[in-house]
Amino acid sequence: MITKLPGWVWMGAALLATIGGMVNAVGFLGLTHEALTHLTGTTTSGAIALVTGDWRLLGHMGAILTAYFSGSVLSGFIIQQSTLRLGRRYGVTLLIESLLLLLATPLLMKDLRWGEYLATCACGVQNAMATSYSGAVIRTTHMSGIITDLGIWIGHWLRGLPQDHKRAWLGLTLFGGFFLGGVLGAVLFARFSYATLLLPAVLTGVTGLVYTVYQHWRGTRPGD
Question: Is Transmembrane helix there in the keyword field (predicted)?
Fold first, then answer.
């Protein structure tokens, strides 16, 4: 149940959603003006490129898909768990995401698409890491599922069905964080261009370090 979600999950989910929003804003405002944090449009663009014979675009879309998928595989390999649980290697995963964003920044500043692939890989790492907890699906890099969940909640509420109100608040928290991240990303990109990615890189890096220290303070083992 959502009512069992501890405070650190709420704060972490909101922060990660904000980071996702910032990265995605950079993707839309950057080199190829496309999403970096989810693959729905990428998959459709790849399908269209296949039909139209635009092999260069098809290769690019395939690289984006592969990068995101690779990030998800890496996250799953490290965390080894489909539900959030203290003691898992979230600190290491966040540090890897931070490193990927740091490496992506100078490449994007040189208009190299490898920067997009590294940033997309970082989003795959993040989305696979923030999966589920106590029956709550935690999505931090795309909002389609969040909007769908909120719509279902409102529909059930209109029918007078019993509702877990904290589920709606979680959805609103994630949506608000992602939207705020988009605003911050757009404002910062106008002034700092791709260097905007340094902020989410620092946030994930610091969070990863703090989590690792907290993990040791709690006396848990990294491999638990």
Answer: yes
Q: What's the predicted TM-score (pTM) here?
A: 0.88
User: Quick one: tokens of 92?
Assistant: 């290491």
* Sign of the torsion formed by the C-alpha atoms of 209, 212, 216 and 217: positive
Q: In tens digits, what is the pLDDT along the chain, a chain of 224 residues?
A: 455 667 777 888 899 999 999 999 999 998 778 889 989 999 999 999 999 999 999 999 999 999 999 999 998 888 776 555 555 578 889 999 999 999 999 999 999 999 999 999 999 999 888 775 545 567 888 888 889 989 998 999 899 888 778 888 888 999 999 999 999 999 999 999 999 999 999 999 998 888 888 777 766 454 44
Q: State how far Cα 216 lies from the chain centre.
A: 25
11/216 Cα distance (integer angstroms): 20
CA nearest to 29, candidates 152, 180, 140, 191: 191
182/170 Cα distance (integer angstroms): 18
DSSP letter string over 21-79?
Answer: HHHHHHHHHSSS---SS--HHHHHHHHHHHHHT-HHHHHHHHHHHHHHHHHHHHHHHHH
Task: Fill in the amino acid letter for 37.
Answer: T
For the chain, give every domain's residue range: 29-217
